[in-house]
Transcriptional regulator, LacI family
Amino acid sequence: MDERPARPVMADVAQLAGVSHQTVSRVLNDHPYVKEETRAKVLAAMAELGYRRNLTARALARRQSDTIGVIAFDTTLHGPASTLFSLEQAARAAGYEVQVVTVPDPHPQAFADAVDRLVAQSVCGVVVLAPQRAAVQVMAGLPADLPAVAVEGGAAPGVPSVVVDQVDGALQATRHLIELGHTEIAHVRGRQDWLEAEARLDGWQQALTAAGLAVRDPLPGDWSARSGYDAGLLLRDRWPEVTGVFVANDHMALGMIRALAEAGVDVPGQVSVVGFDDIAEAGYLRPPLTTVHQDFAEVGRRCVDVLVERIGASERWSTGCPVVVPGRLVVRASTGPAPR
Amino acid sequence: MDERPARPVMADVAQLAGVSHQTVSRVLNDHPYVKEETRAKVLAAMAELGYRRNLTARALARRQSDTIGVIAFDTTLHGPASTLFSLEQAARAAGYEVQVVTVPDPHPQAFADAVDRLVAQSVCGVVVLAPQRAAVQVMAGLPADLPAVAVEGGAAPGVPSVVVDQVDGALQATRHLIELGHTEIAHVRGRQDWLEAEARLDGWQQALTAAGLAVRDPLPGDWSARSGYDAGLLLRDRWPEVTGVFVANDHMALGMIRALAEAGVDVPGQVSVVGFDDIAEAGYLRPPLTTVHQDFAEVGRRCVDVLVERIGASERWSTGCPVVVPGRLVVRASTGPAPR
DNA sequence: CCCGTGCCTGTTAGCGTTAACAAGAGTCCC
DNA sequence: GGGACTCTTGTTAACGCTAACAGGCACGGG
């Protein structure tokens, strides 16, 4: 005659344990001032009923949800995917859930919608994992009382960021080529509107300028292996004298190497190639790729650190300078001494 | 003297519009029986106050949250990452939020914890994106009234699944080698405990058996490029007569090719290699990789379809057979006729 | 003219939790 | 013995929304 047993609620536990529902709440929230004996009774009752607390109700009552929202652009890409993965684990360890909203097109309006949805969910903090210029504007428009962190974010006022030092990484990569004796060094840039693409371009330019070498126009690229391949063809055609290339990410680097190989150009014998990212398979490509390693796991963790700190602090926060995770050049076999 | 303006709630909108809060609710939920004029007034009031509905309160009142939970193992891997990405977009289009929980170790207990957390959040459905044997047990233990879908899931009773036809894909790959005249064909398997690894092994065996060819022990692998490289070394050492290899994923295939190249073995001249996954850069490796394409975007979309249907249906669902997304062999340059 | 039937709106009562307050019991000290 | 604590528990009122019910009004048919 009975319905299927509904999920037990606090009141049920309270009744079974012979206490008030508030006492159950106290046990759940580790309040001091609960007698050990009472706590045991409540715990036993919870176990017997298979009680699970309703986090929705909790969130409503506390006006705080212990959920971190993530706004991401393309979680398929190596960097965002890796960051998201470690971020989720770090968040869980800190007691937070993670809710992800991806933004298919990097238009400000789409970002704004994403923020709205997250706010409607009463998230207690937001991570912006969209390293585009368009995302920067959005952060400026974030509700002032909502803690936020940007990954690789530009200088949005009031929003702290966690970044891998892109300029420095590009400097390391380019200097490496210079030290090997290369003097004609090209660059394949990442997608327009991406901050990382600009920073890597910057680093490359700085290194060349510091060494007194010529700065060519960067070859266009969109992060994809295909665009790297196209850039490779273009390179041969336009600047056959180039012997070193700093490519803005590993996927494009691999496309570039393939184009060069097809054209009969030996890497690293005739042309040296450096990538960026250090994707998992970089060490197993032909040739093994020299590249700049980025510790995305660390980035994810630091994001949570910063965000949790902001959530904890009730007063107005100061902006502070970005948390910088260093990049590290990994020398493998795609670079060698300049041919003479 | 005033505090910073608190976020407006329904009552505020109602007051400004001169109606009851229930009418505001009706407008928000597209109820019939709201006069056009009233609707306009309410909408105007909402716009003026910048009202955002509180989804937490809504979820509590409706006892339903419009959130889909995803339990994933490693969202860094190509397949899960791609599936998750399209799933999130499809879910949003269907009016759902997505909450992700990753499980660092594939132990049943860890999966069970993940389910608990999702249930506590009152998610209205769950996608299990963890293609391991350990995850199958967990699905059997899912609350009976919680709609669920498994991706690449085994035969958990009552839980529908969306799969790419792995066995068929492996058959296509292996047959391709056979048709090219190869008779000594090895296999590098994926990580133990993964259902996909088993299915691909199966397909390989079936194809060989059907053709009357010898079935060797599969070489061990764990999906990583490194393990593919190791398998390549092992292969040369153990079975120098092998001329065709079906490798369970592209990353291992690329490691294998590198190992062979180092040993002076030409691909595809002396040994043909087929991968599985069709990662974005597969066409730009050296040589371009013949592989089996999986349409993960479609998998994500179908997951949402199935889940939404289950959520809508109030009565007990029948299990039905899995939704099968076909795999497709993409022939590139890493395979060629068997040498004689 | 009354009653039933659409339309439209308001009132009330939850949803399951936490917060705020109240209050009783025990302890300690003067 | 009384006041001021600390420890422990219970009662009540939110949190912001939706669901259920109860009207009021206009219209049409018997």
